[in-house]
Every structure is written in C-alpha cells, then in structure tokens.
Amino acid sequence: MRLVLLGPPGCGKGTQAAVLRDRFGIPHLSTGAMLRSAVEADTEIGRRAASIMSRGALVPDEVVQGIVALRLSLEDCARGYILDGFPRTVAQANALQQMLARAGQALDRVVEFTISEDELVRRITGRYVCTNCDAVYNEHSKPTQRKNICDVCGGSSFRRREDDRVDTVAERMAAYREETAPLVPYYEDKGLLTQIDGSQATAKVTAELLGTLA
Ligand code: AMP
Fold first, then answer.
1. What's residue 97's pLDDT?
2. What is the pTM of this model?
3. Which of 4, 48, 50, 100 satisfies CB 3.0 to 4.6 Å to 110 for a cystine?
C-alpha cells in the first residue's frame, strides 16, 4: 500500500502514520524527520536546510525530492510506505508521480486531515518530544502516562522542536496554505483524495482512517 498523508503541521499526520506503520508493517517516511536527522548529523543537506526549517519555510524541492527518491529505492519500501510531509508542493507531487511511474507503481490513496488554525496552534505549541527515542507527546491531548517518563523508552528527558514556536508556526501555516493546499484539488482530480476531520479524538481519526483503507 502506498499512501500520502496530507495536512497542516499539527493535524496528526505523524501520529496516524505511526499507527498505520504498525498495522500494515510498512515504513513511515517523514521528510521532516529525515531533514532533522540531517541537521543533527551536520551533513551538507542538513547545513543547507537548518536555517530554512528554523524559520518555518520549505526546503527547496530538489533537495527533498533527492532524499525521497533515495529512500523509496530502499528494499523496505518494496511492499509500500506511508509518506508524511511529502509531497508539499505541486512540483514535488509531479516528481513523485514520475518516481512511481518509473517503478511501474501508483499511489493507492491520499488522505487529508482537516482542522482549524486555532486548534493547530494549540496543538503545536503543546508538543514535546522524547530526547532519547523521538516519541511525540502533547500537553493537551497526549501527555506521557507517568509524569515526565516516556511511555516508549522510559527516558526522562524531553525537548521542544525548534520550529514549534508560536512565531514559526504562523510561517509554517502560511507555507501550507500557499504551497501545499493546492495538492487537495490536485489529488481530488486524480480520484485519490479522502478527507478526514482531524480535530476529532485520535482514536476516532484512526478508526475513520482504517475504514477508508479497508
Ligand atoms: P514536518 O516535520 O513535516 O512539520 O517538517 C518540518 C520542516 O521540514 C518543514 O517546516 C520544512 O521546513 C521541512 N520540510 C519537511 N518536509 C518538506 C518537504 N516535503 N518540502 C519542503 N520542506 C520540507
């Protein structure tokens, strides 16, 4: 199964992608996570991307497309994958179509999570991440079960994402509205799009998502 999850930052794409990864045993490919690893490892791509990401803008198409093309060519993607955060522009969507066509493949579904901007700001600014294993939590909707202890690895050190600050969030929303939202009609025209109300409780969103993929 080859899926694209679309939606503004904070809509729950990453959370739902992790559920699908466990359910279907296919990799969850987050371009944001790949770029953050490159920044941490101080690679050439990471150095190019760091300042762009910290101000909430989009990394150039050709950089992200290169990373994705390489990742999709790996063995573990042969049975399918969940793309989270890619494509983010029409140019990236066209590049993905070409990568798929070259491999004789096609997307099965594109799911967009819809949600209001007020709710997004509340969610993003409440988000925190385990320093050890990168599990994502939220002060409002998904705190750790035991105070300050990671549910996944037992770690007790957490951090905020550099780009989850209120000022940067506005920039990321604008990038979504201007550059990514045109992908909704793009995939609608191809008959691939399903929209799900992402403001519902996580379990309800998961249930609807699994329903559309059944
Ligand atoms: P995310 O974790 O998906 O919110 O992505 C974090 C940041 O990484 C974004 O704000 C962008 O700066 C960058 N990024 C991630 N995916 C892409 C993409 N497909 N195209 C351009 N920039 C991206």
1. 97
2. 0.88
3. 4
